[in-house]
Amino acid sequence: MRLFYALPLPPGFTRALGRVGADMKRRFPGLSVPREAGLHFTIFFFGEVDAEGAARLSGLLDAEELGRPAVRVRFSAVETFPPTGNPRVVYAAVDEGAEGIVAVHDCLGRLLARERWPVEDEHRPFRPHVTIARNKRDFLSREALDGIVLPAEPFTIDRCVLFRSDLRPDGAVYTPIKERRFGT
User: Fold this and answer.
1) What is this structure's pTM?
2) Which domains, from first to last, does the chain contain?
């Protein structure tokens, strides 16, 4: 099964970002947008994992080190990966709360290293973001993205979840396997 750790968004924010993605899809038909239920901050993606590995990853969410406070977050801007050339990913960047999300990433990274779990080194710093669209074929001007407005209100990230990802013709479906509430 395909697994990943993520920080889910509160429902009001998944709906708001879902509307942003739908508007982008209307303006730029070559984009693909995730389902609202699939909007989250990915912390680590593991790919295919067997049942024993899934149990190990699930168990790491019980670690004392993850007993941290919830994170107050605010989106800052629409940005892209890569930062130059034709964008392949359009995402909601974070300013307020970025350090808290990075702290969760780093904590899980230390736990994975302690367990000798193989994690691909991306050779670049982790950047908290929520993917709102993917561009696989069309040229997309960054200037055309300037007018896209993200929700401005702050929100709270209160848990980390181990998700299973099932790929389907109409998009990936994410099923929670285990969650760890922050502050516990």
Assistant:
1) 0.93
2) 9-45+69-157 (3.90.1140.10)
